[in-house]
């Protein structure tokens, strides 16, 4: 499905990809992910979308965002909004769908292949529009989680579905060894 001369772009829905990888029990190594798709074609752009809590002293995602920014990813972020739901639970809202769609539509005339890292069915109209413009679309998500993280309508619309679990050996971060202190040392 990939051709060496393809002009490729990656559109990574950060929270969706994180949730899919977590449901499969592994972490993504973004350096390996980028290298894998550079190998598959001419990588024009690798976008990563995430919402950030601005008022937190420390955000656990900040080191990843900084690393991605310094390592060739185009970061698209916006402040997440905190609110309290009707049951008094603290919730965070930070949907990045519109930003992803706008970037994909703007880049479409210069692409042969778009790779969408998301299982969100809301992206089906985007995939359909890109296809009408002559862009092939691969969607990376998982059917192997319970429930599956890929919306059926998105999987059916895509030219190619890539099972995230099948990429585990290529883009997964090796598990860290847990070291226990030696009581005899």
From TrEMBL:
InterPro entries: LabA, NYN. GO terms for molecular function: RNA nuclease activity. Residues 7-165 form the NYN domain. The lineage of its organism: Bacteria, Pseudomonadati, Pseudomonadota, Alphaproteobacteria, Rhodobacterales. This is NYN domain-containing protein. PANTHER family: SLR0755 PROTEIN. It holds the Pfam family NYN.
């Amino acid at each position: 499905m990939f051709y060496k001369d393809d002009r490729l772009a990656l559109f990574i829905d950060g929270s969706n990809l994180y949730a899919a990888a977590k449901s499969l029990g592994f972490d993504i190594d973004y350096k390996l992910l980028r290298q894998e798709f550079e190998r598959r074609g001419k990588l024009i752009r690798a976008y990563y979308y995430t919402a950030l809590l601005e008022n937190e002293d420390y955000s656990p995602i900040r080191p990843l965002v900084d690393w991605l920014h310094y390592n060739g990813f185009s970061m698209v972020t916006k402040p997440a909004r905190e609110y309290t739901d009707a049951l008094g639970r603290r919730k965070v809202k930070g949907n990045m769908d519109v930003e992803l769609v706008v970037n994909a539509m703007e880049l479409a005339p210069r692409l042969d292949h778009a790779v969408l890292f998301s299982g969100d069915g809301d992206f089906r109209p985007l995939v359909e529009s890109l296809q009408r413009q002559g862009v092939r679309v691969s969607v990376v998500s998982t059917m192997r989680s319970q429930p599956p993280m890929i919306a059926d309508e998105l999987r059916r619309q895509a030219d190619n579905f890539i099972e995230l679990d099948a990429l585990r050996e290529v883009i997964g971060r090796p598990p860290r060894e847990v070291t226990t202190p030696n009581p005899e040392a």
